[in-house]
Amino acid sequence: MKTAPTAAYIDYWDRGLWCFGIRVWPNECKAIANDPGELPDKMVAIEPPCQIPLNPQALPNGVLKLSVVAHMAAHPGSDLLGLVTGKTTFEQARSNAKSSY
């Protein structure tokens, strides 16, 4: 899923046994998660933020890297990788995001 419930950020997330994803602001991103029984708008940051643009080859191992790889594998047409690497602007990515979870 790709949602932007406010103008401040975009959430890229998937629900499975747990709900994991990435919250992206214009200049940084964070890995986010919550229990699948919770509403997606209750997701919380689970790692420190990373500044955008990211170098995909230099991403540290952790939930952020796992979330990017998993999201792109599940949604190969997603603009997430372009957004976090600076090839897609925040405004471009936000333009086709759903407004609610």
Which class best fits the helix and strand makeup? alpha+beta
Task: Encode the helix/strand succession as letters.
Answer: EEEEEEHHH
Distance between the termini: 8 Å
- The helix fraction, in percent, is 10-25%
Radius of gyration, whole Å? 12 Å
Domains (count): 1
Q: What oligomeric state do the depicted chains represent?
A: single chain
Overall morphology:
globular
Count of DSSP strands: 6
Taking pLDDT < 50 over at least 5 consecutive residues as the criterion, the unreliable ranges are: none
Indicate the proportion of strand residues: 15-25%
* H/I helix tally: 3
**Could you describe the largest sheet, including whether it forms a barrel?**
6 strands, antiparallel
- pLDDT averaged residue by residue: 89
Folded structure, characterized:
This protein is α+β, with helices and mostly antiparallel strands. The chain has one domain (2-94). Helix content is 22%, strand content 25%. The chain has helices spanning 63-74, 80-84, 90-94, and strands spanning 2-3, 10-15, 19-24, 28-34, 44-45, 50-51. Strands 1, 2, 3, 4, 5 and 6 form a six-stranded antiparallel beta sheet that branches. 25% of the residues are buried.
